Structure formats: structure tokens, C-alpha cells
């Protein structure tokens, strides 16, 4: 009876989004091939389809997991569904447009429904501060991008993203103009140094907000970098060497921060900073395998990170605490949950045969192609990734904690969500099996 009710709720929540997902997969019926993705260093048609499917998948899971919270009354349910559908439509336009103005507008418009989720369904008063950080960081960083888009229009008399632009006049861009071009995307990723908004937003956001942030919004920055890779190749600005060094150094520092964190949600948020700094290395390396690794890393993180937040929220609902030390004994009281934790953490630390492993190998190859001395920081990042992921898992083992935990087992709906995310972390690579051939 429980599973029947869960399946009934699943069909109720997913019928509309499933239709869109089916049509997206119909358009993406052919296998993922890098010859179709990178044509003349600037064609992302199939990758756009993948990001659209990822947006629908994350939105579907987010709607399912938040159905009980949002549907306390008809007014809240209507507002929640409107925010979710608005965000999904914005993402569909963003990943499919070739117009630079629409690209910028949808890039900024994604803030509104996300801010609504944080302000309306966030539980702490600090959600106002988190929303202010989120808005100021992203909007202030995007103003230089708007200026550069109009500069592109003045040089080319078109707002269409065309790989055959006559970029001769743009090859003389100075270093400051190059930084203006990519700052908005680096903040949205976020790059180390401009990442302070992300932990605050994750901590104060409800589960739906965290899933959207980790699964979709962070990918806007990486997608934007890939869109403007043509300009990055032609300018050859030393500014990108500085960005490369900051991302490599920041990924190492964030590994140590994760190891010292006691808040499970903050730890997962900082691990997202590490994972989203690595695609920047792949893009700036200016190699095909680096871009392949960046794409695969964004896909794997977009699936695995929302799953980690879902599991952390499940623990919080049982113990009423995000403190890792107060979440012990899960292996005794919830062995099924620990199995889901193990699968997601293994994928997050790039254990085979996860997609994360393939992406890290490709990015490492592109970075080592520049200089073999980068093997030292890359090895340290990989080692720290294994340490803090195992730290999350092992901290939930052992004897009962001192905190009383009168909780019941998860619903069948939650187990459907857990299994779906764990399954996709490992088997999504079968859908894009030609990307490394």
C-alpha cells in the first residue's frame, strides 16, 4: 500500500514535466558525440539538449520532494508551482537561445524564482541576508557582461551568437575587458574568492532551493564560459592565467575547509565550489579534452549534488540538526539510507564507474598537458575529495548519539527520489558513451 501511494504521488507530480522530458529526449535521440558538440570550437547543440534534460530532471525531483512542504494550503501550492515552472521556462530559453540579449536576460531572470524560494520557504531570519548576498554578487558581476555584449554588437552589428563572427577588432581586447566578459560566469559558478554567497544561500534555502542551486543555477556559469570560449581563444589574454591559478589554488583550500566543517549542508556547499572550479580549468586549458571534461563534470555534479542535499535534508528531518556529530547511528536505525549515502558519496568522490571519474580524468589530462608540475595540486585535490566525502559517511556510523531521535522510516516517495539520483550518477554515462571516443 505504501509503494502504491508513492507511485500515485509520483504520477501526480510528474505528469506535466514528463511530457517535456519525453520531447527533449526525442530531440536528443542520437548518442552524444563530441564531433556534434564542438564544431569549429563553438557549437553546443547537443550539450544544450543535455542541460535542458538535466534541468527538467532536477525540477521533477525537486517538485516531488517538496510536494508535502509546499502543499500545506492552496495558495502556497500555487505560488510554489508557479515559481518552479517559471524557473524551468527560463532555463529552457537560456540553454536554447542564440540571441545574446535573451541569453543575458534569462541569465539574470533566473534570480527571481530562486529568491522567491529562499524568502518564502526559508526557515531562518538570516534568509534575508543570504538573499541579499545572492542578489548583489550575481547582479553586480553581470553588469560588465552587459557592457561587453553591447560592445560585441557595435563590432558585429548583431546580437546573434555566431561562430563565424569577424572578431578581428575584438582580438585587441585589453585584460580588463576580458575579465568583464567572464566575471559574471565565474561568480555564478562560483569561483573561489567570490563564492561567499553560495554557503549562505544553501544554508538558508529550503531543500527545493538547494537542489535548484546545485543542480541547475551553478551550471549557468559553466555554460556561459563554454559559449564564450571562441573569444577566449582569440584574445589569448594573460588574465585567464590568473583565473586558472585562482581556481586551482581555491580548489585546494576548499578541500581543507570541507574537512574542518561540522555543518553537513555547508560541507556539501563547499564541495560544490571545488567541483565547479575544476570545469574552469578544463575550459581555460584550451583543449578539446578539457572542454569534454568540463561538460561531463557539470552533468555529474548536476545529478549528484542535489542528491547529497536531499540525503542531508532527510537526516535533518530525523535529528533536527545539521551537525555531523549529531547524525550518528544512521547505519543502525536506517541501513537503507546508508546504502543510498554510500552510492552518492562514492559518485561524488569519483569512484568508478561514475561519470565524475571520467570528467576528472579528462580535466586532469588537459591540465597536465600545460605543465606536469600541476600534478601536485591535482593529486592533493583528489585526495582531499576522498577524505571529506568519507568523513561525511563515516561520521554517521557507530553508536547512538546522545541526541534522542524518535523518527520513522522515509516514505516510498523519498526512496524513489534517492534511487533515481543514485541510478543516474552511475548510468547516465551510458547515454553519452561516445563523448570520450
From TrEMBL:
Enzyme nomenclature, EC number: 7.1.1.2
Segments traversing the membrane: 47-66, 78-95, 101-122, 134-154, 174-198, 205-226, 238-259, 280-303, 338-358, 370-393, 413-432
Keywords carried by this UniProt record: Electron transport, Membrane, Mitochondrion, NAD, Respiratory chain, Translocase, Transmembrane, Transmembrane helix, Transport, Ubiquinone
Keyword Ribosomal protein recorded: no
Record carries keyword Mitochondrion: yes
Catalysis: reaction(s): a ubiquinone + NADH + 5 H(+)(in) = a ubiquinol + NAD(+) + 4 H(+)(out)
GO biological process: ATP synthesis coupled electron transport; electron transport coupled proton transport
Alphabetical list of InterPro entries matching this protein: NADH_UbQ_OxRdtase, ND/Mrp_TM
Residue ranges annotated for the NADH:quinone oxidoreductase/Mrp antiporter transmembrane domain, each copy included: 98-382
Protein name per the record: NADH-ubiquinone oxidoreductase chain 4
Lineage of the species this protein comes from: Eukaryota, Metazoa, Spiralia, Lophotrochozoa, Bryozoa
